[in-house]
Design a protein that fits this description.
The chain is 65% helix and 5% strand. By secondary structure, it is mainly alpha-helical. Among the domains are: 114 residues, no CATH class; 108 residues. Helix 2 packs across helix 3, helix 4 packs across helix 6 and helix 11 packs across helix 13.
């Protein structure tokens, strides 16, 4: 439909300034972004997607799509922060386009624009759309997979269904093979509930299945052939044993509780979960799974509820694990606004935004300790890990974050007032637009918060100091998992030894041939510390927990970004 394509284009163009402006304003966040940027830089230098590396050590935790796209972007735009972040930002725009496109086909132009705007203004999605990680790319592939597959099934177009399967294959190549398996399974359940599972070729065209399988599993098979044991590490250790909390190659990530995860996932999609919940409730009340024309909506409801519910029941949960549900939530929210009328939802949204405004105002009036403890510790993987493992995590000064909370409180209060007026007028259109406008006004504060956090815990300043001071023949060592300072080599041009850093995403790679000399235990560092060579040590650990406390004559050179730089002479 031409109208659907136009709606998708408008949604993307409207979202672009929010996602693209200011991408290079802050250094890479570490831990978080720097590791992925450095992997892409090493891929650009080496050119082998079957041998991804970080610090020259094989990296096998994620497949190569993000890194290949960033390496290609570096060739065009240079090796800069803005170039690296442009890849997830463009992926986020693609997800918005897919959501608006499907929404326009099912709900009309207004519904499509609202669905695309809802996805953009899910704070969790927006944040990861400006952040160097595979998640935005994963969500984009899933969003287009569902959009094309569901349109193909509901409209009887096998070509669209096949294209959707190909997108699911790309999702596996972006992050996880489950991205190619679970979405078609969700669609199968929705079709089976309506008695429309057969013929299979109607929604599983053989050409689409073959292309999806090649994309989803070809890289994994090729890497296993080159690196025996990789498949066991990926399937068993990184999935089965990870959920059971019994990994043989664990990293330092600290999982959320089920309640914490659900709260973060819901708040990350606020306030759009309200109308989405209304839409799902109506589907259940009407037993919509019995109606062929509702199959697509049932599939979206199953997907959103399944992502959140299954993750909550699993043994390992991180804040971004709810992101794949957000395009479905945005579409269900647009339907909820269409079907439920204006007054009830407007009142609920006014109450929700008012609650957010009050919470931000209370945090603004405090000293920041409660905000760091309850908000940052739950929503930010690095802050949580720092508190649990003794890493010296760095957060911005409270006054800089405080201003953003104050601005959000004002915007939320204004939005609540506008929604109260819309409720009085019983206007669903005015209420949905007021909600969208309010959330759009909040997004710059989210972007500013990301930049502030990155500025204050980036490794850039310390790495640039090393680049100025380290002389030929000096040794550079990094204490702890290297992903905690992933951009160290990016900014310094120096490749460190890794001391006591096998509990890491490089744990499997550290066991491969050729990696052993890069990984030192503390005893080896102590023995070398008093030798002839000058040794520099970067540590993210607090002084009392750092090996530096046992190194004779260790001089503290710099303390910045939650890291300390020591030298032996």
């Amino acid at each position: 439909m031409r109208d659907a394509r136009l709606v998708a284009l408008i949604a993307v163009l409207a979202a672009a300034p929010f996602l693209l402006v200011g991408l290079g304003a802050a250094p890479f966040d570490d831990p978080g972004e720097g590791m992925h940027a450095e992997i892409a830089r090493e891929l650009a230098a080496g050119g082998d997607p079957l041998a991804l590396s970080l610090n020259g050590v094989r990296y096998v935790d994620k497949p190569p799509l993000l890194y290949a796209l960033m390496a290609a972007a570096f060739a065009v735009g240079g090796q800069r922060e803005a170039t690296a972040r442009a890849v997830p930002a463009l992926a986020a725009l693609a997800a918005i386009g897919a959501t608006a496109w499907l929404g326009a086909r099912w709900l009309g132009p207004r519904g499509g624009l609202l669905a695309g705007g809802a996805l953009l203004t899910c704070a969790g999605f927006f944040a990861y759309g400006r952040y160097v990680r595979p998640d935005a790319l994963f969500v984009a592939a899933l969003a287009w997979g569902f959009a094309l597959a569901l349109a193909g099934v509901t409209e009887g177009r096998r070509g669209l269904a096949a294209a959707g399967l190909v997108c699911f294959g790309l999702a596996a190549l972006a992050k996880d093979p489950l991205g190619a398996l679970v979405p078609p399974l969700t669609l199968a359940v929705a079709l089976a509930l309506g008695g429309r599972l057969r013929p299979l070729g109607r929604w599983l065209p053989p050409a689409g299945v073959a292309a999806a399988a090649l994309l989803a599993f070809g890289w994994w098979i090729a890497v296993e052939a080159r690196t025996p044991g990789f498949a066991w590490y990926t399937v068993v250790d990184n999935h089965v044993l990870n959920v059971a909390r019994a990994r043989q190659f664990p990293d330092e990530d600290v999982p959320l509780s089920a309640v914490e995860f659900l709260v973060i996932a819901v708040l990350g999609a606020a306030p759009w979960v309200l109308p989405a919940t209304v839409a799902v409730a109506r589907l259940v009340r009407d037993r919509a799974w019995r109606r062929p024309d509702e199959t697509g909506w049932v599939a979206l409801a199953l997907w959103a509820a399944g992502v959140l519910g299954v993750t909550a029941l699993s043994g390992f949960r991180l804040p971004h694990y709810g992101l794949p549900a957000y395009p479905a939530i945005a579409l269900l929210a647009a339907r909820g606004w269409r079907d439920a009328g204006g007054r009830g939802l407007a009142i609920a949204h006014a109450a929700g935004l008012g609650t957010i405004a009050v919470a931000c105002a209370v945090a603004w009036s405090g000293d920041g300790q409660a905000f760091a403890r309850h908000v940052m510790d739950a929503t930010d993987v690095a802050t949580r890990k720092a508190g649990a493992t003794g890493h010296g995590g760095a957060l911005p000064p409270w006054e800089s974050l405080r201003g953003l909370l104050g601005a959000t409180a004002v915007v939320g209060a204004a939005g609540a007032a506008a929604l109260a007026v819309a409720a009085a007028r019983r206007s669903a259109v005015a209420a949905s637009l007021a909600t969208l406008a309010t959330m759009l006004a909040v997004m710059p504060a989210v972007a500013a918060g990301l930049g502030l956090v990155a500025e204050h815990r980036a490794v850039r300043g310390l790495a640039q100091e090393l680049a100025r001071r380290v002389a030929p023949g000096d040794l550079l060592a990094h204490e702890g998992p290297l992903e905690n300072s992933g951009a160290l080599e990016w900014y310094s041009g120096l490749r460190p030894l890794i001391v006591d850093g096998r509990r890491s995403v490089l744990a499997f790679g550290s066991m491969l041939d050729g990696a052993g000399d890069l990984f030192w235990d503390p005893e080896r560092l102590r023995a070398a510390w008093t030798g002839e060579r000058r040794i520099w040590l970067v540590s993210t650990r607090e002084p009392g927990r750092s090996v530096a406390a046992s190194l004779p004559g260790a001089a503290l050179v710099l303390d910045a970004g939650g890291r300390r730089l020591y030298v032996n002479r």
